[in-house]
Amino acid sequence: MKINKFLQKCFKKFFQKVFVLFHGRLKEYKETNKCNFKVTKIKNIFLEDNKYDLDNHIYEIPNARVYTDTVEHVAIIQDNIVIPKISYQQIAGELKEEKFNKVFFTGTPRLIKKIDGTMLSLVQGASGNNYFHFLFDIVTKLKLCEQKIALEKIDFFYVPGDHQWQKNIFSLFNIKEKKLINSNIYRHVKVKNLIAIDHPWYQKGFVQNEITFLPEWIIFWLREKFLHLSKKFECSDKVFIDRSESILNHCKLINNNEVIEKLSKFGFKSYQVGKLDFFEQIYLFNNAKIIIGPHGAAFSNIVFSNPNLHLIEIIPEDHPSRKCERICNILKMNYTRIKTPQIIDNKNLLGDIKVSTIEIENALNKFL
User: 368 exposed, middle or buried (CB, 10 Å; 0-12, 13-18, 19+)?
Assistant: First the structure.
């Protein structure tokens, strides 16, 4: 086993060196570099007095390369120089300077797909396939882009995946599937004209800290853009979010069935949100009066809920996320946080949190 790992490591190093010969060695950007790109500040037309709003910029870069490891790193390159501020390197949940980008250590060990035309890069590692980050990061960049460049003038869109729900949302911007270039398949592209936009809300530090300052304009714009598209279906206004469908154990309830049985006595119905289409998800959350469930991306949909919503979020006591609390505060919703203790040994369990049904009942009794 050790020999196999050693051989794999040697082959990987050799492979990387071969591609350095093909593509050249990368350099850090300096003011003396003769790079040719244009940076324009995007005027924020939404709630300009919001102290949490950030300056955003649009980059127009001719003859650029984009390389991604599809996990934490995206390098935007011109003439073998990694362009700062617009390249993305998030390591262990913290945004780092471009000098920490993986390409300086591994190169760009993938064949290049050449693209003749104008392409907007929407990649930022694995997070782009998370429902929350897709809505609040990726889709939001489309709105920012429209402040300077019409989407119909863009030939291609470099995207983090090809899930059907992503395609459905892109179609609402009249972006056809044939214009989407999947970064999971083409990790290294070279394009005649590249457009890139800095992150709408995360430009420093740890992501879980910065999520506390989600700009108001993003929340209100998402409601304006999508809320009227909700698709009505028969559902309860007392909703339990059943996260048992998730492929990850993270924030899954070990006693999920016990919680469902308890909540049914209060008139709740459980929903596996990922099995609903995007438009049904909008309706489910907009129709709800009470929502309870474990922390997860499905709660992003509270952006479509009404101000009278009561939200109860079940979350590990050591989890730093304040995403739901932030959205609830902006939209004047009622928020309750139930913290669960750490489970030491969950190796053989389908989940990593357990909540007391008595604690749930106590939380519900405050407003039922």
Answer: exposed
d(CA 132, CA 126): 12
- Cβ neighbours of residue 34 closer than 8 Å, sequence gap 6 or more: 79
Contact indicator for 82, 26 with CB cutoff of 8 Å: yes
Q: How far is 166 from 284, CA to CA, in rounded Å? A: 19
CATH fold group of domain 230-364: Rossmann fold (3.40.50)
| pLDDT per position as a tens digit, 258-271 | 999 999 999 999 99
* The two three-digit tokens of residue 315, written as one number: 């979350």
Contact in structure between 125 and 106 (CB atoms under 8 Å): no
Region 90-119: mean pLDDT is 94
End-to-end CA gap in the chain: 59
Pairing relationship of beta strands 156-159 and 290-294 according to DSSP bridges? unpaired
Rounded CA-CA distance 67/73 in Å is 8
Closest CA to 191 of 96, 71, 320, 77: 77
Distance CA 140, CA 260 (A): 35
Cα 99 to Cα 104, 108, 138, 207: the distances in Å are: 7, 15, 24, 19
Domain ranges of the chain: 18-223, 230-364
Q: Strands of 310-316's sheet, edge to edge?
A: 269-271, 238-241, 290-294, 310-316, 334-340
* Per-residue pLDDT tens over the stretch 144-195: 999 999 999 999 999 999 999 999 999 999 999 999 999 999 999 999 999 9
Closest residue by Cα to residue 101 from 127, 117, 125: 125
Cβ density class 87-122: b for 16+ within 10 Å, e for less? bbbbeeeebeebebbbbbebbbbbebeebeebbbbb
Q: Are 69 and 102 in contact (CB under 8 A)?
A: yes
Type of residue at 104: F
Q: What angle do CA 243, 298, 125 make, to 5 degrees?
A: 105
List the alpha helices (DSSP H) in 193-295: 207-210, 216-226, 256-264, 278-287
Q: For 304-316, give one letter per residue: b (16+ CB within 10 A) or e.
A: bbeeebbbbbbbb
* pTM, to two decimals: 0.91
